Amino acid sequence: MVSVAVKNLSYEVNGVHILNDISFTHSSGLLMIIGPNGAGKTTLLRALAGLVKFRGSVELDGVRPEEYRRYISYVPAQPSLDLMARGLDVALAMNYRPPDGLWRERFLEVLGRFGLGGLANRPVISMSSGEQRLLLLAAALSRDPRLLILDEPTAFLDVTNRTKVIELLQELAGDGVSVVVATHDIEYTAVADNVAVLKSGRLVSFGPPREALSEELLSDVYGISIRRVDRNTPSYMPELLLKRFSK
Amino acid sequence: MVSVAVKNLSYEVNGVHILNDISFTHSSGLLMIIGPNGAGKTTLLRALAGLVKFRGSVELDGVRPEEYRRYISYVPAQPSLDLMARGLDVALAMNYRPPDGLWRERFLEVLGRFGLGGLANRPVISMSSGEQRLLLLAAALSRDPRLLILDEPTAFLDVTNRTKVIELLQELAGDGVSVVVATHDIEYTAVADNVAVLKSGRLVSFGPPREALSEELLSDVYGISIRRVDRNTPSYMPELLLKRFSK
Amino acid sequence: MRAGQLRWLAPPILLALASLASVSIGPYSRVGLPQLVDLMVGHDIPSTYFYIIVYRLTRTAAAIVLGVSLASAGASLQYTLRNPLVDPYLAGVASGALLGVTLMIYLGRVGFLELYAAAMAGGLLTLALVTVVSSLAGGGASTFLITGVAASYLLSGLTMFLMIDLGPRLPGALYWMFGSVAFVTANILEKSAAVAAASLAGLLLLARKVNTFMLGDEVARSLGVNVSLVRALSFLLASSATSAVVAMSGPVGFIGLVSPWLARRMYGSNFTTVLPAAATIGATLTVLSDIAARLVIYPSEAPLTAVTSVFGAPLLVYILLKSRSEGSW
Amino acid sequence: MRAGQLRWLAPPILLALASLASVSIGPYSRVGLPQLVDLMVGHDIPSTYFYIIVYRLTRTAAAIVLGVSLASAGASLQYTLRNPLVDPYLAGVASGALLGVTLMIYLGRVGFLELYAAAMAGGLLTLALVTVVSSLAGGGASTFLITGVAASYLLSGLTMFLMIDLGPRLPGALYWMFGSVAFVTANILEKSAAVAAASLAGLLLLARKVNTFMLGDEVARSLGVNVSLVRALSFLLASSATSAVVAMSGPVGFIGLVSPWLARRMYGSNFTTVLPAAATIGATLTVLSDIAARLVIYPSEAPLTAVTSVFGAPLLVYILLKSRSEGSW
Amino acid sequence: QVQVINRKLSDISSSVSNINSTVMSEVSSRLANESEYLGELLSQLNTSVSSQVAKIRGEVSGLEASIGFPVAIVDALNQTVYVPSMPHRVVTLDPASTEIALAVGAAGQLVGVDNDSLVYLPPPFNYTINKLYQNGSVASIGSTWSSPSVEAILALRPDLVIGTAGWGYNNYIASVLSQYGIPVLLLPSSSSLSDVYKSIIMVGEATGHVKDAVSIVENDSAIVDSLESRLHGLPEVRVAIILWVNPTYVAGGGTFQDNLITLGGGVNAFANSSGWPVVTAEELLEVNPQVIILMSNGGLFNESYLIQWLNSSIGPAYKNISAIASGRVYLVEGWYESVLSEPSVLAPYGALLIAEILHPQAFNISSLPSVISPSTLGVPGVNLEGGPA
Ligand SMILES: Nc1ncnc2c1ncn2[C@@H]1O[C@H](COP(=O)(O)OP(=O)(O)OP(=O)(O)O)[C@@H](O)[C@H]1O
Ligand SMILES: Nc1ncnc2c1ncn2[C@@H]1O[C@H](COP(=O)(O)OP(=O)(O)OP(=O)(O)O)[C@@H](O)[C@H]1O
Ligand SMILES: [Mg+2]
Ligand SMILES: [Mg+2]
After folding, report:
1. What keywords does the record list, in alphabetical order (chains C, D) (predicted)?
2. Residue in B closest to A78 by C-alpha
3. What integer pLDDT is reported at residue C75 of this predicted model?
4. Does residue A240 have a pLDDT over 90?
5. Using CA of residue C72, residue C73, residue C79, residue C84, what is the dihedral sign?
6. B125 C-alpha to ligand 3 centroid (Å)
7. Where are the domains of chain C?
8. Cβ(D154)–Cβ(D278) below 8 Å
9. Protein residue with its CA nearest to atom 17 in ligand 2
10. What dotted CATH number matches D30-77+84-323?
11. At residue D182, does pLDDT exceed 80?
């Protein structure tokens, strides 16, 4: 169980403030970061993965991200893979310092869950958008990380695969892996252990979804009225869209 | 109003059948193509944009795509932009054969709708994933196309911007632009004039959403049970997820 | 706004000043700026002075044609092949031209026009060969890269074999290899300028299409740009402009590689802007280098590539260091 | 399975055969395989025969060291800088070494060890300079590219100035430029091999880290790979291996560029596989080229670069055309 | 005493070999076709004489060796080259070394020369070396413009290798050969006559022909001395030597040609530059030489080519160049080219040649031909057919 403790995190580039004095502690399980485009989600993930120089502190299991990288798997939203590399090449590259000899089995197992075992021997360039994402997810998991950082893991995925990914992340969280995910699929926040809501580089809410989220907060953060779709399921949808649907 | 007429379209690469004997006619408005990852959505869009050599025929307003390119804007799911280019550079490049001098105004107007006027003078590399998508959308629209082909235009977008994009597409469709979109956001199909459902390279359903879609069909196509979330709104959600939410 | 205008005016003004200097400075010390002014205001000057001015004008014009051609060719190839390491000689035209020249010297045929024709023929044949093979092999960007590199090596390999056999005649070929505009005659300049101008006009016509390459092949094609054709055409035009100036002055280095970098650094990514900007920068650098070539080891004419490199490289590094924080390379 | 094993066994077997041929074949036809066998089984052979065999062995070993070093350096740089046009001389070590050699010749200090030391020093100083400037300028991949190119041009420009002053002494510098393993002495081979081996060992140790570059800088860094450091180290190690062999045999071209391409084509993207594969292919190509270099214009020695280029380029184009349909370039 | 014996022995040696080569070959050519029997007899006689000659030669060189060897010579790289005994298998690496070796009388010891020596040597050395090559006693080791084959040299089992330091791959070859215990003598690469003299003496010492070497140097310096007195008091003429046109290479200061110009009573128009600068037509107009000496490069160039080039650059302004205005452009052809470009044994004749061109009146030449070649202009002391007497 890796705890993620962020204290007074700020980040700016060329005088533009991207992240502003962010503090929270996520002690275990699945953390979902939501917020509008440009809110700073990706930047926050990169800070957690030790990829940017920031002010303030981040501690993963008590140490700085740089020292914890051995145990982190990070998948960016738009990775720039070598398009000629085959699936197994990508997984091997991810396991450049293999903790054990089982990475290949784990990789193939995850691919298998999505019915994509065939990707192992195909070059990235021949894969569909969704297949590329799942390949990278499988490669990231093959490292057997303690902390998994995923930027928009459900983008490009169909509903089935999205669901399977959410399932997988919950399983991992259950197995003691800490998972931090940035996403725009606010309806999935229901399954998170913690939710962090960013707006213009500030943390406006943090905590378990039932406490941290509300129609008011979301409407405020996203700038349009957002309603729970159905009182039985804690899913949210913009009112505008709801109206359109019922026209 | 550009009609899109596809007849017996098939496509294969290295002996793998990617598209199989697809026929449909979309006479105007917004067409949404849905289907699982790897179903062939992107391939179909590329065929419509005249980017692949296929068997069968595609007619846009009666002519082959190659002859219609002048009027098409196509935005792929994962474009490979020059990361040093600034927003306006990208728009100018898109308007390499400008129909009129108004492309810049149109470009800035669309950016403005998303509150992103500042992107015009920033290099692509400094933009967030969502901002990059919207930049490209604005650039594509600045061409004033008659046919707009978008691969997963809502990926990486927050709910607000997704809604705005859907709104925008509906508006365009209303203004006589034909819009063909591949998407995984099945809940938005409700606003489409036509829906095409692909599974393993075959067209399994086509028509206005209320006719072409059903819980049974979607459950069959995606391989998991999918239910309408709320009888008042025609939104769909996997049952598995629904269960998880209500646990 | 003032600074903005300056940014646009600076290159042409610099080029004009450099050209003026180039016509005023030379080993024949009795002809300088005063004599030039005399000539321009219509005063009588000795005919010898007049001819010297004409000679320097020819040489300056050659430097401009050279700089414009190499920089434009370099910019076009860097854009269409999306690789900043590409220089105008990618297609192997320099190696082809050198092979032509070496062969002629080897055969003992050293007429100016013979050498020129051999260089031109060598360059153009190479170019044609590379284009055909690349197209047969699919016509992708990396195919052009690989075939061009292979051709360059093959032809310079063959040239080496000939050079070995040249014996004491080697220096004649060698200096040609280093490049110079000191020996360009009006006759040859005309021919090269015509070919280069036609090629550059073609590149200019293609500029808006080439500009779409920054969107990626896929998007560019969707816009109706025939990406393979434009790539092949740019390759042909850029290389034929290069061929024309190589035949005239030998393969002068650095200009074609670095001018597009500088232009991009100053004017952004737009190819329609970068192309003329690179051309102007290239011409200015070449004219200045040629002035230096006359002076730096006077009375000997320094090889132009030596000068462009020795003066250009520190400039490049300076700009690189300056732009460090901006992270835009 | 058989075909799979063959794919792995072919390169080392080919290298072994090529090396055997290299020791058995030479212009002195009285020494061939039978004499080699005689020597190995302990029979007496004339001392001249023995010398010839020792000479050929030295030269074969030099070719192997050269091929392995250039191919490994090329592969490492192409991977870490993610640019297939990069060759082992990117850092300008060849230009630096050539400047060293030319300077010594210019100063009239032409002792063999002096020249070797000057070449080595020139290469290593250049390398150090480029690394320092690149690091100051941020250490990105393109910074290394640009600084290296700038240094190459600067140093070859300076060399040209010296060269045109060399006159009849020019061939000494010039043919050093063309490269050869014909003049490698055991003494120098030892030194170069030691430096190259140490550098290559370093590259081998880095191989798994370099392999992560295919995931993009961002992901590689997240894995705990210090991307800038690994890039700078690879650059240093690859260039110092190159320096070592350049000082020994001059800047032999083509091998370092093309061996990684062939290795990738045959063995996929994995750097941990491509590195040794490229090394073996590079060594084989070099040994074969060297055999040709002795024979092709006997009794003269052909420049090795001429041979690698003339024989290698068609091979490259052939492979390119063959792989056309597979679209994997 | 030793010297006297030595001189006697070499007298015998040379007279015997004279009999052998001149008399016998003449007799045989006249008589051979008269009857087969006579021919056979003559060839028998020939062989017996040659074997006797060889025997005497062997004794002579044995004696010589016992007197002069071993020798230790400090070469151009300041390394001591040790020649243990009279070398009999000598290989030379470039034309200059071959010429010197032939001049000091080591022709009989040569077993290998570079290919360029077979092509570029002036007479009489070109006759000698080509005869040796044709009758198989000397092999080619390859061209210096590429590089000779080390294996070809090793295969000749040389006991001495001579080359010019810094020329082609010579230094590299030297270091490889020394690995196999073969002495390699590297001569200074000459930029003046004194370097040439030094080289001649070194080769003489290493091959056991010191006396001949000394007498060549004496003869050479005598020519230069007499030239000096003959030119005494004459005005210096400003001259440009053009080695190649378009690009136009001229001889600058500090070069071998510069040295010849000075000795020939002229001043180099490009003396203020070093090496072999490349100059433009504008430059030529500026320095305005009174005389232009143009190398034909084996027929590649001539005066009209030069004028064509000048005219295409600076137009009719070229007519103001003093040498052209006064018609003093001279084209050098034939083996005179190598005399003016190769720093070697014949260098003093190069100085003589230049003196004749610059100051014809001092040599009583009334009309100087515009093409300077062995057939149009003689040099005092030079046999036009076969080179220097
Ligand atoms: N160099 C820069 N100059 C100005 N703004 C910058 C620069 N770099 C990043 N930004 C801005 O920082 C903001 C945060 O970016 P980030 O990628 O973290 O957002 P995000 O929350 O991940 O957005 P998205 O949901 O679109 O992925 C964006 O608005 C981006 O435009
Ligand atoms: N060269 C190839 N060899 C084998 N299969 C290929 C090749 N190229 C494409 N495919 C397959 O074709 C299928 C269709 O791809 P396409 O990109 O059209 O899917 P998609 O519906 O857009 O998927 P996604 O929703 O993930 O974007 C994918 O399963 C892909 O793996
Ligand atoms: Mg993001
Ligand atoms: Mg797709």
Report:
1. Cell membrane, Membrane, Transmembrane, Transmembrane helix, Transport
2. B129
3. 97
4. no
5. negative
6. 12
7. 30-77+84-323
8. no
9. A128
10. 1.10.3470.10
11. yes
CA distance C313 to chain D (A): 5
Contact present, E and D (at least 3 Cβ pairs less than 8 Å): yes
Contact A89 D268 (CB under 8 A): yes
Amino acid, res. A42: T
pTM (two decimals): 0.89
Query: B4-213 has which CATH code?
Result: 3.40.50.300
What distance in Å separates the CA atoms of residue E166 and residue D268, rounded to the nearest whole number?
Answer: 47
Six token digits for residue B157: 């977008």
DSSP E253: B
- Of the residues D85, D142, D159, D322, the best mutation for testing chain C's interface (the one with the most C CB atoms within 10 Å of its CB) is D85
| Residue whose entry in the numeric block shows the structure tokens 């999505």 | A114
All CATH 3.40.50.300 domain ranges in chain B, comma separated = 4-213
CA distance C274 to chain D (A): 19
ipTM > 0.95?
A: no
- List the structure tokens of E173: 């070859």
Residue D326 pLDDT > 50: no
**Token pair listed for A55:** 């002010």
Interatomic CA distance for residues C58 and C19, integer angstroms:
11
- pLDDT score recorded for residue C3: 66
CA distance A75 to B66: 37
Residue A206 Cα to ligand 3 midpoint, Å, equals 19
Dihedral (Cα; C281, C284, C285, C286), 10-degree rounding = 120
Site of tokens 């391989």: B223
Q: Which of A49, A74, A81 sits opposite D214 (nearest CB)?
A: A81
Q: What is the tens place of the pLDDT at every residue in D14-40? A: 999 999 999 999 888 888 888 888 888
D85 to chain C: which residues are within 8 Å by CB? 83, 85-86, 145, 149
- Element of type H or E holding C121: helix C112-136
Average confidence (pLDDT) over D47-68? 94
- B113: how many CB neighbours lie within 10 A of its CB? 17
What confidence tens digit (pLDDT) does each residue in E34-93 have?
Answer: 656 665 666 676 666 667 666 666 665 555 555 678 899 999 888 899 999 899 999 999
C-alpha distance from D1 to closest chain C C-alpha (Å): 30
Cβ within 8 Å, pair B159-A184: yes
Residues of D with CB under 8 A from a CB of A: 82, 208-209, 211-212, 214-219, 221-225, 264, 268-270, 272, 328
Cα–Cα distance for residue pair A209/D33, rounded to 1 Å? 81
CA E55 → CA D282, E16, E46, E62, E109, distances in Å? 56, 11, 14, 10, 15
CB D118 within 8 A of CB D101: yes
Expressed in angstroms, the distance from the first to the final Cα of chain B is 48
Q: Beta-strand (E) ranges in chain C?
A: none
Instruction: Write out the two tokens for E101.
Output: 């070796």
- Residue A157: which of B39, B158, B184 has the nearest Cβ? B184
Q: Cβ of B172 under 8 Å from any chain C Cβ?
A: no
User: How far is Cα B232 from Cα B245, in angstroms, rounded to an integer?
Assistant: 19
Q: If you search the block for the tokens 């692909």, which residue do you land on?
A: B198
For chain D, say whether C51 makes contact (Cβ under 8 Å).
Answer: no
Distance CA E211, CA E104 (A): 8
pLDDT tens-digit readout, C75-117: 999 999 988 889 999 999 999 999 999 999 889 888 888 999 9
Q: Which ligand sits closest to the CA of A34?
A: 1
**Chain D nearest C-alpha distance from C4 (Å):** 26
Of C154, C178, C329, the CB nearest to D160: C178
In this prediction, residue E138 has a pLDDT band, given cuts at 50, 70 and 90, of very high
Q: Find, among E117, E127, E122, the residue nearest to E379 by Cα.
A: E122
A33 and A180 in contact (C-beta within 8 Å)? yes
Looking at D103-165, which runs of residues are DSSP E strands?
Answer: none
